[in-house]
Amino acid sequence: MIKQQVFVTRKLNPEVIAMLEKVAEVEQWTKNAPIPRELLLEKIKHVDAVLTMLTERVDEEFLTSTKRLRIVANMAVGYDNIDLEACRRHEVIVTNTPDVLTESTADLAFALLMATGRRLTEANRFLLQGEWTAWSPTLMAGQNVYGSTIGIIGMGRIGEAVARRAKGFGMRILYHNRKRKPQAEQETGAQYADLAELLQASDYVVLLTPLTEDTRMLMGEKQFSLMKETAVFINVSRGGTVDESALYQALVDKKIWAAGLDVFAVEPVPMDNPLLQLPNVVALPHIGSATVQTRAEMARLAAANIVAVLSGRGPLTAV
């Protein structure tokens, strides 16, 4: 009998590998950089399961390179790196890691909001570069957070968690979503608004939608033109949801006040991306769920999905 095989595309905790080894032989790519595409296609030829990251593209080429693949376990809540229709055709199960990263990602979104609104990274650079020579009434003056209006675009689990944090800061909460969330409205006091109304009224616009054909380039020139000149834009969704050229122009023309970005259209973001040159942009390297505890739990859940499927049970968190 051929023993089941699992390939893991990045180095994970030994505890997670031990989970997988109970049902299969495991090989993992242990370098910090993503595995080269050609080598990945070679490695997956005879595996029953692959534990992937957002850096791996699971498409028709990927799927036709395998002989007996049963499950792709994506260590992320998003899955825009995976062609779901192709996986259906090949009868490959796709799982993700929802819930376990909700609170840590919401923490990051709100931290980015505060850092951008209060100019924290800019002020830090100012001090470390020796430019702080005297106190001034306007020195590094930012925007109020407490009592302001937040507009959340995408009221999923993370959006609701951000709303709970906003409630603690006495903020008026607006949200836009495909459908209304009565329970979230009751819990946080959030009010549903259409997109244009939300953009016009919000002091902070937080984008938290998944990347789909409907949300690709959701924020463009028209949308930024609706925002207040004192408004702050925060993106903790996917880079493809924003027209970066339009965002850059809105910032340069002072159509909006600042932007905090954890994601970019191209990642890792090239250093010649003009957004990185602006003092009113706080840029982070896609660390929404990056806490030690959360990343460990994401890996565990991805592995648990593989163990369940290879053991003849159903997946825990199928997409």
From TrEMBL:
The gene is tkrA. Its EC number is 1.1.1.215. It comes from Brevibacillus brevis (strain 47 / JCM 6285 / NBRC 100599). GO terms for cellular component: cytosol. Residues 110-288 form the D-isomer specific 2-hydroxyacid dehydrogenase NAD-binding domain. GO terms for molecular function: gluconate 2-dehydrogenase activity; glyoxylate reductase (NADPH) activity; hydroxypyruvate reductase [NAD(P)H] activity; NAD binding. It is an enzyme of class 1 (oxidoreductase). This is Probable 2-ketogluconate reductase. Residues 6-319 form the D-isomer specific 2-hydroxyacid dehydrogenase catalytic domain. Keywords: Oxidoreductase. Belongs to the D-isomer specific 2-hydroxyacid dehydrogenase family. The keyword Oxidoreductase applies.
